[in-house]
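Let us work through a complete example step by step.
Step 1: write down the sequence.
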Amino acid sequence: MHKHQPVDETVGPGRLFRASAWLGAMLACLIDHAKPVRVTLLILLIAVFAAVGVDQVSELFLFAVWSDPSTGRYLGLLASSAVAGLSIWYAARNAYRLRYPRWPALQDPRGAGLRDWIPRLLGASVPLLVLLGYLLSLRGVQNGPCGITMNCQQRSWRAMGLLLESAFLIVFFIRRRRLMNAMWRRMNVSAICTESSDDSRVTLVRELGRFPLWLYAFAIGLNMVVTGLIAWRPELLDGIGPLAILLIAASFFCLSGGFLCMLADRRGLPLLSSLLMLSLLLHVLRLNDNHRVRQYPAMSTHQQPATAAAETRPSFDEYAKAWLDDRCAGRTTCPVVLASSEGGGIRGAAWTALVLGRLTDTMNSRWPSKTGEPLLGRYMFAGSGVSGGSLGLASYVALLHQAVAPGNSAPAGNPLEAAAQTLLNHDFLAPTLANMFFVDFTQRWLPGAWFDDRSRALTRSWEWAASKQGVSAFAEPLSALYRTANGQLDTRMPALFLNSTTVAEGRRFIQHPFRPTAMSAQPSPPLSAWTAAFDGSVWLDPRVPLSEVVLNSARFTYLSPAGTLESAATPAPTPAELQLVDGGYFENSGTTTLLEVMRQLRSIATQRGQSLRFIVLHISNDPDIADFVTQHDPAHFQPLYSTACPAVLGSPKNILNDELTAPLKALLDTRSARGEYARMQLLQGLQMNRAGLTQGDMLWHFRLCHGDYPIPLGWTISAPVFTELQRQLQQNYPLDAMAQALQEQLNPP
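Step 2: predict the structure and record it as tokens.
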């Protein structure tokens, strides 16, 4: 019989207590070790969040690693990620050499491993984060085989390059001291410590040594020079690549910000909190607002507008009557082409310009005009655009204006389509991001407005790209498109109606090249042509540039800040100051404004005893909406994309939201629903012949499908994207039949 041995009840709890104490000490040590490198950790945390949660950022990784055919930009991506990794590692390594009275754990010998490996891991993580962002972005690639833009092997080697770069950085961080010691021994020079944690700790920053101080001074000076260059000519960064810009900015943030944090931490000053409070104070008091809407070409975004110029714009009635007199004389029923283009960043712009350019060129090659004025452009009265669609419409009209200029008649072939592709095939995002993270970032801490903001970098990029095509319209007043050189009314260009949204009122802000309508200074006056909307001509100077008008319609969330519009007109309208954001906040289709333009034009024609037949081209870029046109013109056109672009709008959504997310989800989804409602209102507003004859109005919907290749939403695009857009247009639409149908309707008797 065995006797029960007494149990020591203190063994289990004692071990648990000691383990808990050890874990607590290690956690405290880890937290203290994170404090000197918090700038780097914050940057990496934001990068991870953006790569995982923001689709537009995810597309940048896909563009840089997979779809971009430029080997030079890929090598630039490798170089910038290596520079960022080295900067992060060097800043963290020096931060751990200082003694911080507030953080005694940084002197604990047990944390030597952390001080050795945290800088190494942070530096080597940069190429890995780029690779991770790329792998996550592949989840959105649904239908494409590997060889759409490049074969799988080439794509794998691009990804492998980032992995090898990370491994090389780790090896360099670990072995560099041993390699240097081997070199020093051959030169009879004293060896250095094999581990950075064994370096002598210093009390003051100036004790780090001459080389680190010179390097930090060089980094800060170079940061200032780069900021000045970006403020001066941001468009020169076109072609570098958005990810490279972000990595370069991260390098400067870590080196310059890390150095300033070392100075502040050594003295116990809350540098980051103080800068944040200063920025918030300046923002709330509006002491550094550099986001003003430019009222004329010479105006900057950091100055108030001068006195408004004399009114030189024609009235809408004057333009409409002259247009009808020129096109409709002798016709029983006069055809009028109208276009509406939805928002969607660069893909909306490219799809819009491609559709209009292809139709124009196809008709012009088969039925060339003796006057050099393309038939489709001649009978297109107006276009209503939102966001990227506004850029597409503006590009088409600007190129059309160049084509019909004296001595520049459009030759046969595809001049407008090719010119539009060349104009939009630029990296508009890199200059914008560069201004955001260098110039605009600096402006946040300075009282007073001193620099142009990032939205000006975007408009300068548009103007730069257009000027390389010999097109000056983007840098000139919008109204100049509708005046000849001697000041006479020019009706050859379709009238642009580009939609923005006001912040405080939540109303449409309609920009157009005509003088204000009667009593249009109020949101919804009885005599206004616009329902519950602002007539932009009341607040905008007659000299407002085309690029600024497009920007006001395409002030994409955060990438382009809300614009402060201050009217210099006398007497001042009410309110005298507005804030403008992207037109898609109200509704993204542009059809609401187009329907109102149609009603005004039909009313004028009816008073003159003229009958109109509207031919509406609606261009959408959202692959997830269905074809809302229930009856095309059956004699000429039926869509071919029933299998290539299946309808998904209205499909049941089985995901229910909880009480916290449901209100926010409803607010966001209401925007899409308003666009659907506006499209149906347009359809119902047309006088379509339901008997299948061809005498009623027509509406053609040009959809953009998901396709075989992911199409970006931001402000940068590549040649393979245009290849996919061209494939969809050619495959999904009977272009020859459509061109024939338009020619029969538009050709004068």
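Step 3: interpret the result. The chain has two domains: 26-269, 316-649+665-746.
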